[in-house]
Automatic annotation (TrEMBL):
GO molecular function: acyltransferase activity
Domain of life: Bacteria
Signal sequence bounds: none
InterPro entries reported in the protein's UniProt record: Acyl_CoA_acyltransferase, GCN5-like_dom, GNAT_dom
Protein name: GNAT family N-acetyltransferase
Length: 241
């Protein structure tokens, strides 16, 4: 039997919590524009693949994450491919004693969140991405220095994502502290935390191991576009994210 996280995008877009954010038809769904560029199809039939290609791409691209490599939908080209390491929380490690003031972020913080994500490129982040779940941040004199939050939500699981820190604020332990705040909220709801990292990002993977995550699978990420250039990028996670 397939694991729900083998197809995290499809299972999130058809879940009780995020189906309302899915748009599409003909067996293909994507996150609503402004929330993200993730897309998946019910299967890999020619009809479903054609439905993927027919989806609107206001951001200039679509992104897939699957356990297996899948056919390229007709009319789309591969902008980028990469292997992601998918990790699942096994047991949250005890917190380290650190004086870090973590606070919930609100809609009022949205411009600062988008600016920080644009600067640090933790992954696809758009003007409504912060509405996918709870986000926490660290501020100094009102300036947002680091953040972390939630993204995909297949039933019973929540993805930790959007982990980033301003270049001036790295190496202070913010990523771990913020991820812990997000994870504790996930655990309080009785869900399992998971995440993705580029497979070659050894620093990030080491951090995730230290928090209590274990590798579950290697996933195939692909960015697809209809044109020669895209308006966004699944950039590498920020250092220490």
């Amino acid at each position: 039997m397939a694991h729900p996280l083998d197809r995290p995008i499809w299972n999130a877009l058809t879940s009780a919590r995020q189906a309302s954010l899915a748009v599409g038809a003909g067996g293909a769904l994507r996150l609503a524009p402004g929330y993200g560029v993730f897309v998946a199809s019910v299967d890999q039939s020619p009809e479903s693949l054609a439905a993927v290609a027919a989806l609107e791409q206001p951001e200039g691209l679509l992104a897939t994450v699957e356990a297996e490599r899948t056919p390229v939908p007709p009319g789309l080209t591969v902008l980028k491919e990469a292997v992601l390491t998918q990790m699942v929380l096994v047991d949250l490690a005890p917190a380290k004693a650190r004086d870090i003031a973590v606070e919930p972020l609100t809609e009022a913080d949205a411009p600062a969140m988008l600016a920080l994500a644009t600067l640090t490129e933790p992954g696809p982040f758009f003007d409504k991405t912060h509405r996918l779940g709870d986000f926490f941040g660290v501020k100094q004199d009102g300036r947002l220095l680091a953040m972390a939050g939630e993204r995909l939500k297949p039933d019973g699981f929540t993805e930790v994502s959007g982990v980033c820190a301003h270049p001036d604020a790295r190496g202070r332990g913010y990523a771990g502290a913020l991820m812990r705040a997000v994870i504790e909220r996930i655990l309080a709801r009785g869900e399992t935390a998971f995440l993705h990292s580029y497979a070659d990002n050894a620093g990030a993977i080491a951090l995730y191991h230290s928090l209590g995550f274990a590798i579950r699978a290697q996933m195939q990420m692909r960015m697809l576009t209809q044109g020669d250039q895209a308006k966004g990028d699944l950039a590498k996670p920020a250092e220490g994210a």
